[in-house]
Sequence to fold (258 residues):
Amino acid sequence: MNDKLEIAGKSFNSRLIVGTGRHRTMNEMVESITFAETEIITVATGRLDLNNPNKKTILDYIDWDKYTILPNTAGSKTADEAILTAKLGREITGSNWVKLEVIPDPTHLLPDPIGTYEAAKTLIKNGFVVLPYIHADPVLAKRLADIGCATVMPLGSPIGSGQGILTKEEIALIIESSEVPVVVDAGLAVPSDAAEAMEMGASAVLVNTAIAQAQNPSKMANAFKLGVEAGRSAYLAGRIPKKTHATSSSPGAGINNN
Fold:
């Protein structure tokens, strides 16, 4: 079955996108990426230490021929900062793809909808493929898609909170009306969260903290891979409708007509 994730004309077999932050060691990061069997990896290029050319960064540990590197604008508090960080990421990686994050408050780490929209407009005009991280806001999601964003990435719950998907109704509305891939991003804690997102019809999920901070990141990465695959298969299979009453699974069983 040909069921690939399509983003901006590129095809991917995996629907699990993995972040590289918060890993305890580089070895754990590399191993977890391998076990996740992901194809897209996000990197906060604005937080790389580029002052010492002899010091290795995350990018030195990643096989660029194997993975699509998705620079993100993590750490940007304003639209202008995000635009500058995106341009830096393009210079470093050679990629015009960017995961757009505009987060003004480091306490709750919730995205700024106005700053995100304004930055997206500018970046698209500058030739970027923009994947914006947003609240689960159906109106904002549509407007971002209308101006040319390649995906929309609504949060399930706050970044790193591990609360799972608290925005089910809103994400369902976004999926129902979206003409671009919907990637559920942030707050996922366990593979069942990823499976739930995929069962709803999400195109993909992005997971970072839940893998990086697990007691065994590699095992958790593999579990998320399986959760995504199971959820996608269930969505394609088509679930039974919900009913308000019970229905026997063996109609007529136990009835003797003689």
